[in-house]
TrEMBL record:
Domain of life: Eukaryota
GO cellular component annotations of the record: transcription elongation factor complex
PANTHER family tied to this protein: OCCLUDIN (PTHR23288:SF6), OCCLUDIN AND RNA POLYMERASE II ELONGATION FACTOR ELL (PTHR23288)
Acyltransferase keyword on record: no
Annotated protein name in UniProt: OCLN protein
Classification via PROSITE patterns: OCEL (PS51980)
Length: 136
């Protein structure tokens, strides 16, 4: 049985890891439309919902990981502003700050950043397909 108000609001979990409209977004939308066409049955709706739930968990995990790195960078930046450059602590804080900056440039981090963007687009598309089906 179809529900009128799907509980998919969790997909609105926003982060700073995506940008507005980028050149690849239209191509991504076409890709998602071919992989996840409009829903025509309750069974298909359930499959979309299951995939959504699985991907949402991964998306939130990635966001939390990247948020942790960004939060720590902000914390270290504030510490650097408040510590004398001559102090022994300054060097330790600066080293950790630089290590995290390097981490953000690493291929692994960039891959996770791209995966986050891809998952966000996929979740948005699936949510729209479920919502459109529920309107019928």
């Amino acid at each position: 049985r179809r529900r009128r108000n799907p509980e998919l609001d969790e997909s609105q979990y926003e982060t700073d890891y995506t940008t507005a409209v980028e050149s690849g977004d239209e191509r991504d939308q076409d890709q998602w439309a071919s992989l996840y066409p409009p829903i025509t049955s309750d069974g298909a709706r359930q499959k979309y919902k299951q995939e959504f739930d699985t991907d949402l968990k991964r998306y939130k995990q990635l966001c939390a990981e990247m948020d942790g790195v960004n939060d720590r960078l902000n914390q270290l930046s504030k510490q650097l502003d408040s510590i004398s450059e001559d102090s022994p602590q300054y060097q330790d804080v600066a080293e950790e700050y630089n290590r995290l900056k390097d981490l953000k440039r690493s291929p692994d981090y960039q891959t996770k950043k791209l995966e986050t963007k891809t998952l966000r687009n996929k979740l948005f598309h699936i949510k729209r397909m479920v919502s459109d089906y529920d309107k019928v």
